[in-house]
Amino acid sequence: MHLGPLAASEQAGLKFSESQGATSLAQLRAKPANDLLQAAAQMNRGFAFGPNLDGYFLSTNTKTIYEQGAQSHVPLLAGWNADEGKMFVLFNPQKPSPKSFADQAQTRFGDEASQFLKLYPATTDQEAVASAEALAGDDFIAFSTWKWIDLQRQTGGSPVYQYHFEQVPATKPGAMIGPVPASAVGSKHAGEIEYVFET
């Protein structure tokens, strides 16, 4: 996770506030929360705001904190869902093919592309799509979550529980997520939350 400096986050906050016609914190707080959330969602694909190195809560990057064992020493439950990256592939009008997937592997991994393709095979169209979905999920959340779990296991001094959630939530007939039938997205990102809260 990239952590910017506090000053950059403060400037981004001021710029956002001004874009909403607010010149003070009181004016910003008077705005309807939904309006602010919708405006923020339009910025940088919804990732305009995030943690920063504020010198108080985060004095250095999180990897260093975990490597030094300076994180909270509490039990950790973390994991990812089976189809984390499937939507990235479903929403893309260009479906992966064996050739396009191999070309991307070559561009991204160079001399290691053949080793990569052993882990993410793409000899058929179906295999290319499946590997693209798996890679998208691994890039999006699985690898970083695994790394976090591993660092906590090494230095956290508390139990660590890892999950791989595979349940596919029921969807209403005809429900869509953008241009894709909701039933096609599988065990998507955040799909476990409704089960956690028993809804």
Shape: globular
Indicate the low-confidence ranges by residue numbers. none
* N-to-C CA distance: 31 Å
Evaluate the radius of gyration.
21 Å
Overall tally of domains = 2
Q: Give the strand order of the largest sheet, numbering strands 1, 2, ... along the chain.
A: 1-2
How many E-type strands? 6
Break the fold down into its secondary structure elements and pairings.
Layout: E1 4-5, H1 6-19, H2 25-30, H3 33-41, E2 52-53, H4 62-67, E3 76-81, H5 86-91, H6 98-109, H7 113-119, H8 125-155, E4 160-165, E5 176-177, E6 180-181, H9 193-196
Parallel strand pairs: 1-2, 3-4
Antiparallel strand pairs: 5-6
Helix pairs in contact: 6-7
Overview of this protein structure:
- The chain has 9 helices and 6 strands, in the order E-H-H-H-E-H-E-H-H-H-H-E-E-E-H.
- It has 199 residues and is mainly alpha-helical.
- It folds into 2 domains: 1-59, no CATH class; 74-199, no CATH class.
- A hairpin with a 2-residue loop joins strand 5 (176-177) and strand 6.
- The strands form 3 sheets. It has a two-stranded parallel ribbon. It has a two-stranded parallel sheet with strand order 3-4. Strands 5-6 form a two-stranded antiparallel ribbon.
